[in-house]
Design brief:
With 455 residues, the protein is an all-alpha fold. It contains 18 helices and no strands. The protein has one domain: Hydantoin permease (Orthogonal Bundle), CATH 1.10.4160. The structure holds phenylalanine and sodium ion.
């Protein structure tokens, strides 16, 4: 029997949309606006763009190149590069597993909150509602009661993800992204248009974009910029190696990386405009300043936004738009991380797609569903998130870059490979950024996190 062919994207835009779908996620909507606001506002765009060009896009191209050249998920692709490098691939798989189990939970919350938006079912005090009534947060050590209101949408999230992955690269992942990405643009576009026409939007935008140029001299601002780029482009989790392994032989790796990188950043800016317009509205309503209400992360989505929605005319519609956007953006990212775990087992152990999805994907789902709907779920989520963001991401990319650039000295070979198939030639900047700038920045980021931890 001929060896089974590797799955492939059906169209050129299939890979691009899936890459954008993975990148555009909760990080764009709730992470970027707040990081930018806290790290120099308009001035943050300078380190942010530098980070995109000196680390984000070069690493994106490296991942695409490894996936395309070695045609496998991270463990096998890196093993083909050099046997011991397989360990880096498994590290990425492990990180993906840990992100997947909690990322799904946030999507499940967003599903519930889309429903709660209708009639503002969080009542007069969204903060206590979220923590006590909804999540039922408990003290450390106390497992708390298992929360069915979270478990039901969480089970639904996992069923959707496993079904899509079961359908495969073309009929599952590609089709989903071809629906999700345009849908997200329409929903979120409508939300932003509404937000910028709210009273107070100008105050919010002023607060976000007012440049604090002194921030440029602050090392932590640069760390924040690189950190945002790594998280936002989903670099270091093996996602882009995995997705690129399903490309055809003829593929424009550099051109796609540039488009995906800038598309993700554009969506971030759009989200910043929408989120801070809404925060400006809230500040004006409460007679306060934007700085009193600015927030990011879970607090922004599940506390501040409910407050905004409750104060708005036609808040129900705005709420549904916001939470459904989170769901759509989150699902396309979740699919990509779970595929890393599933694909790794498929490629390494020669298992078929359906059994791999059922066993590995199923096990991931079970862990997620068993742990997070309990009262401890939020604390666990915070812990994993902190650990992944502070160390997991930087360490994975640092080791990868050092091994590829310095131990194996493969960059020139990989560059020649990529240049023969791509539209935009890499020239020297790729080797220089990856070989020198990226490792220095990543090393400094890890040092910075450790220092913060110990002090
Ligand atoms: N890039 C995604 C975002 O911006 C986050 C993500 C990280 C998704 C890792 C998948 C894997 O939200
Ligand atoms: Na992103």
């Amino acid at each position: 029997m001929p060896k089974a062919h590797r799955e492939q994207w059906a169209t050129r835009s299939g890979f691009l949309l899936a890459a954008i779908g993975s990148a555009v996620g909760l990080g764009n909507i709730w992470r970027f606006p707040y990081v930018a606001y806290e790290s120099g506002g308009g001035a943050f765009l300078v380190p942010y763009l530098v980070a995109l060009l000196t680390a984000g896009i070069p690493l994106l191209i490296l991942s695409y190149t490894i996936g395309h050249r070695f045609r496998a998920s991270p463990p096998v692709a890196l093993r083909r590069l050099s046997r011991p490098a397989e360990a880096i691939g498994w590290w990425q798989v492990l990180i993906s597993f840990f992100i997947a189990i909690y990322y799904a939970v946030i999507i499940a919350w967003a599903i519930r909150y889309a429903g709660f938006s209708i009639g503002q079912q969080w009542g007069a005090e969204p903060g206590p509602f979220f923590e006590s009534t909804f999540v039922g947060i408990t003290e450390a050590g106390d497992f708390g009661t298992y929360n069915i209101g979270v478990a039901v949408p969480l089970v639904a999230v996992w069923i959707i993800v496993l079904l899509l992955l079961g359908f495969g690269v073309r009929r599952g992942i590609e089709v989903a992204n071809k629906i999700f990405m345009p849908l997200l643009l329409v929903l979120f576009g409508a939300l932003v248009v509404r937000a910028v026409t709210l009273e107070g939007a100008g105050e919010g935008l002023d607060a976000l974009f007012a440049p604090d140029w002194s921030a440029l001299g602050d090392g932590s601002v640069w760390v924040a910029a690189y950190g945002q780029i790594f998280f936002s482009l989903s670099i270091g989790f093996g996602i882009m190696i995995t997705y690129a392994s399903y490309l055809r032989r003829k593929a424009d790796l550099t051109g796609t990386a540039l488009v995906a990188g800038f598309a993700n950043s554009s969506f971030e800016l759009l989200a910043g405009i929408g989120v801070f317009s809404a925060l400006g509205f809230m500040a004006v309503q409460s007679g306060g300043e934007v700085q009193d209400v600015a927030a990011g992360g879970i607090g922004l989505a599940f506390v501040a936004f409910p407050q905004i929605i409750s104060q708005m005319p036609a808040g129900d519609v705005f709420g549904v738009l916001f939470f459904v956007s989170l769901v759509v953006a989150g699902l396309s990212s979740l699919i990509s991380i779970v595929q890393v775990v599933v694909g790794a087992v498929q490629d390494r152990f020669g298992v078929g797609r359906v059994p791999a999805v059922a066993v590995v994907g199923g096990a991931t789902a079970v862990v997620s569903i068993a742990l997070f709907p309990a009262g401890q779920g939020l604390i666990l989520l915070d812990t994993i998130d902190h650990w992944i963001n502070q160390y997991g991401i930087a360490l994975a990319s640092l080791v990868l870059v050092v091994v590829v650039a310095w131990a194996l000295r493969s960059l020139p070979t990989l560059q020649r490979y990529t240049d023969t198939i791509s539209s935009v030639p890499l020239r020297g900047w790729w080797v220089v950024t990856l070989g020198a700038i990226t490792p220095v920045v990543l090393g400094y980021m890890m040092y910075d996190s450790l220092k913060a931890e110990l002090s």
